[in-house]
Model the fold of this input.
Amino acid sequence: MFGPIGMPELIVIFLVALLIFGPRKLPEIGKTIGKGLSEFKRASDDLKRTIEDEIEEGKREASAVRREINAVSDGLKAAVTQ
Done:
């Protein structure tokens, strides 16, 4: 369900949190944790997208350099064979 954490572990975590924070604070804490996780996921997705964009830009630049090298190589081959 949640990786290595199963239902029994989640129940124990919930009961410990209930004992520590009490029933009145638990919804507020859950809401805060939810917002934090949401912001973390959004930041993680943004970082992933940025990295993917940079990789694609690098691939495009490498391809352009490769085309230039091939053009120079073809020109040199043509000059040598004449």
